[in-house]
Amino acid sequence: MALSLLRPVGYNCSTCGYCSPPGQRSSRKSSRSYGMVAPSMSPSFYQGLIDRGWRRSGEYVYHPDMRDTCCPQYTIRLDAGAFSPTKNQRGVVNRFNRFLQTGHKPGEGGDEAAGTQGGGGKAKGKGKGKAKPFDLVEELRLHQVGYATGESKHKFELEFVPAVASDETFALYKRYQMAVHNDGPGKNSMTSFSRFLCDSPLGDEAITYSDGADTAHLPQHYGSYHLLYRVDGKLVGISVIDVLPACVSSVYFIWDPDWAWAALGKLSALFEIALVREMAAAGAEGMKWLYMGYWIADCAKMRYKGEYAPSFLLDPGTQQFHLLTSKLDTFLQSHKGYIGFTDVEAMSAEAVNAAKAAAPAVNGSGEASQSHDVSMEEKGEWADEDEDSEDDESEDDDAEYPTPPPPGMLDPATLSAELLGSLVVFTDTGSGLGLVPYAMFKRRLRPAGRRMTTELVAAVGPELLASIKNRQFEEKGLLFFG
Predict the structure, then answer these.
(1) Which Pfam families match (predicted)?
(2) CA-CA distance, 213 to 19, in Å (whole number)?
């Protein structure tokens, strides 16, 4: 099992890509978060972090300050087993299957429903007929190599590969960023692509499936993957995902601009849901959720994730998940700062609606927010969840850890010297890397280093860290000064 190593970066402020016009960032550094670097993490440890509202971008792991940041970013997850696709989502699958089978894109070849198998088509015979039940996994595999039994005009393949940069994946990423996000030709490099969407601290841990289960098409290890979508051998999409003990975590989705008609972003979401279902059916214990990154109440390119139901939002203060209801959604659209979800649920619908009508939408500068409307192509893009996460944390401004602390985090002043001293540091011992009690190691640190260490413990929570008392050096996080 990989060790989980944590090095403090600290509380910082940065510009925001959400409360600003498309393609621009806020003029003020109004986005606030706590960050750390994790050069190594076990998948189980990272599962515990995302269950508390953390996310990673490469080796940088961060948690928004959900009280003071301009655009609160809520962890959102979908119960994959309980998910039932909407008419629109079924239509995305049916149109793609029709293209694979007949070669016809939407608007070509007459009736869009003609020539498709499955997909909720109506039975032949007298009367209106009865819609065929829509089995998501079955429909998605209908024309996929390795599953398909009939003939198709086009060859569709899915391939799991480790999250490693290649000339092919980088070329598609660069095209996508230029066409969809208006990046200049020189903005993206193989190095930045690797750092953002390939470099991963997650260790390689074998997945245990049920004896006799067919797992040839499933990931064999927890960790970071690129799920490649190919049509006739051509790469048309890349899902960047983390496979963790309880979930598949969507990181980013890249698609070929020539395939905008296919709504590949929405399609990839459905394939990721199907992956969770198939892993659970094969006996991967605990596998249940699709984590969709962060959800922002008043940002269209983020809030669409709630269209996949039933979805749950993390209350950052209690670190408990709550069903994303219309009441909770309405309240969060009109309120910044932090109020516990249980308190919101106790409010009357009239009070929530009245508060929404009275509260103007504001951005981090205190001005009326710019429109967050985006194109349908952007709405269809899955897990493009954090424009800020690509930025190098070194470009952020260091700021003081706030008092009171961010929701879900502790006040560093409440941590006792005894507790801190019992924690374990992974560092150079003089004869190689090894474990040292923090009580001994802290003598090497300047006052600023000690302060930053205490703030990391407060932000992450001492219960997630290894100590000489619990001796869970592999299961829990280790302070790291390498």
Answers:
(1) ATE_C, ATE_N
(2) 47
Beta bridge pairs of residue 83:
none
pLDDT tens for 123-153 read 444 555 666 789 999 999 999 999 987 789 9
Rounded Cα gap, residues 36 and 60, in angstroms: 6
pLDDT at 109: 72
**Hey, what are 326's tokens?**
């219309």
Cα gap 264→480, rounded to integer Å: 40
Q: Is the dihedral of CA 97, 98, 101, 107 positive or negative?
A: negative
Q: What's the CA gap between 256 and 179, in Å, rounded?
A: 9
3-state secondary structure 173-201: HHHHHHHHCCCCCCCCCHHHHHHHHCCCC
**Cβ count within 10 A of residue 168:** 12
Nearest to 308 by CA among 375, 244, 379: 379
Is 233 buried (19+), middle (13-18) or exposed (0-12) by CB count in 10 A?
A: exposed
Answer for the pair 187, 177: CB distance below 8 angstroms, yes or no: yes
Query: How large is the average pLDDT for residues 299-322?
Result: 96
